[in-house]
Amino acid sequence: MLCQLCDLNSASVTISYLIHDKKISMNLCKECAEKKGVDNPMTTLPQMFGNFITQLLGEDSLKRSKPDDDVKCDACGLTWDSFEKTGLFGCDICYQVFSKDLNVILRRIHGSNQHIGNRPKSQRYLIDDSELKKIKLELQAAVANEDFELAAELRDMIRDAQSSLNEKVDDGILR
Amino acid sequence: MNEIGSHKKRIRPQKSTNVSIKAINSTSKVNDLLWNFGSWLTEEDQFSDIIISSRIRLARNIKGYPFPNQASNSELNIVLKKVKNACEKCHSLRKANFVEIEKLSEWDCKYFVERRLASPQFIESKAASLLVIGPQESLSIMVNEEDHLRMQCIEGGLKINQAWKKIRSVDDELEENLNFSYSRKFGYLTACPTNLGTGLRVSIFVHLPALSMQGKINSVMETLPTSEIAVRGFYGEGTESIGNIFQISNQLTLGRTEESVVQRITATAKKLIEIERKARYELLEKDSIKLEDSVFRALGILKNARIISSLESMDLLSTLRLGRELEFIKDFSRLAINQLMVLVQPAHLRKIYDKDLSAQERDIIRAEFIRENLSNLE
């Protein structure tokens, strides 16, 4: 695994932070860990989410966190400063307002910024068996053509179809 | 074999005959839950020698309302009503109890934490907080914790997949009446970005006394990838392990499918089961008499102590549980020991004896309670 700060060297140190009751771990290379002052285990680690966010974002965040250019979510009133302190967003609109910095944070926390899990029932595809075979072929073609957006859409469709098929099988066993 | 409490004199409260949805507001109704152990304390499977319980939690928020940390009291109350209505229409929750946290005493709140139905954080922020408890305490929902909904399914033994199917169907059912915050890119939107995406946290509670005796806990835990898997204490995040019980759960919620997380934690559980079973076998092979000695010493203290702290009793019950698994003792069922581990906690004792106790009085009463129950179980 590569260091989550420099993305260059391989990670050899894992630091865990306890932030807002959540344990977050970062995998760092030796150089970055030393820069963060983590050269020995007795060093006090930053406890606040704010410090952690600042570290995740690097220098950009420090420059930006002056009060006068603090970004604010108009829907709920949450400021970036406040997010740095609590680690919590205030509403669903915050995810749009702060999306620029968020992508970096999410990549560092989850190693990804794209949801691939379940969707609300109302947004799932309803597909039958014969259609499923066709979609699988289309997916292969999309991947071959490097049309990843289409491939993601098709993959979602297949997932939905398969999970609804599984449910049918389960129901058959249960009832 | 007797279950804890089934024979107990005296303090067993009358069961309510009302099976439809009922509101618990007064302390006395909370008592109804006391002896009706949840399914995770009454059901077991072939992995229950090591896996005490499996738990799945889903975080959800309702579109158009600020998350609890930014919401006004009136907004929180609207959310509460919407969730309550949706729960009342939900087939899986048709016999649910609704508990308003605001109306509970401090001890009743702690009692729900000990019962793993509420988080310590949840009982702190009382305004418009509702706890929905489904039949057998298997399904439950914290309303207005860090997110609008924190749904939970908890089962005895290694039943992660089963719990996942159960909670997924509740999620689908609730969605018919609730509009959840969701984006195609980020998935289910949560107050904290560490829950974003699936909002899924899968946990197992594992009992690892043999690895602990061999001093191997840390080295085993270090083999788990910290970026993917978290090891937590008895009461969840930021707490210590008690009685050699550890909580293992997934770290990441974005960019992973629910199924892959379920599989990952199941695989981790099976690995830990294998290692702990091996450690137990090794102890038996190499140091059987020493092991037997510590089991019977634990039993001796539990059966004779006059003052015992919660921590000491958990440690001794942990050893007793190991002794029972290795068949040094056969008098107690595994479930009875699990139940005792829950009942000796402070808020449970406070409820059982129904009076305010100082810490020292509680230690005396705990010793008495354990003595009585162990002699009744034999």
What do you see in this structure?
The complex is a heterodimer of chains A (175) and B (378). Chain A is built from 8 helices and 2 strands. Chain A has helices spanning 30-35, 49-57, 59-64, 80-86, 94-97, 99-110, 129-144, 148-174; strands at residues 13-19, 22-28. The model of chain A is unreliable at 37-50 and 168-175 (pLDDT under 50). With 175 residues, chain A is mostly helical. Chain A has a two-stranded antiparallel ribbon with strand order 1-2. Chain B has 12 helices and 11 strands. Chain B is 43% helix and 15% strand. The N and C termini of chain B lie close together (9 Å). In chain B, strands 1-3-4-5-6-2-9-11-10 form a 9-stranded mixed β-sheet. Chain B has a two-stranded antiparallel sheet with strand order 7-8. Residues 5-28 of chain B have low confidence and may be disordered. The radius of gyration of chain B is 21 Å and the shape is globular. In chain B, strand 4 (130-133) and strand 5 (139-143) form a beta hairpin. With 378 residues, chain B is of the alpha+beta class. Chains A and B meet through strand 1, strand 2 and helix 6 of A and helix 5, strand 7 and strand 8 of B.
Q: TL;DR?
A:
The complex is a heterodimer of chains A (175) and B (378). Chain A is mainly alpha-helical and 175 residues long. Chain A contains eight helices and two strands.
What are the SSEs and their pairings?
The complex is a heterodimer of chains A (175) and B (378).
Chain A: E1 13-19, E2 22-28, H1 30-35, H2 49-57, H3 59-64, H4 80-86, H5 94-97, H6 99-110, H7 129-144, H8 148-174
Chain B: E1 22-24, H1 27-31, E2 51-60, H2 73-88, E3 97-100, H3 106-114, H4 120-124, E4 130-133, E5 139-143, E6 149-156, H5 160-175, E7 182-183, E8 187-188, E9 200-207, H6 209-213, H7 217-222, E10 229-232, E11 245-250, H8 258-304, H9 310-325, H10 334-343, H11 346-353, H12 359-377
Helix pairs in contact in B: 3-11, 8-9, 9-10
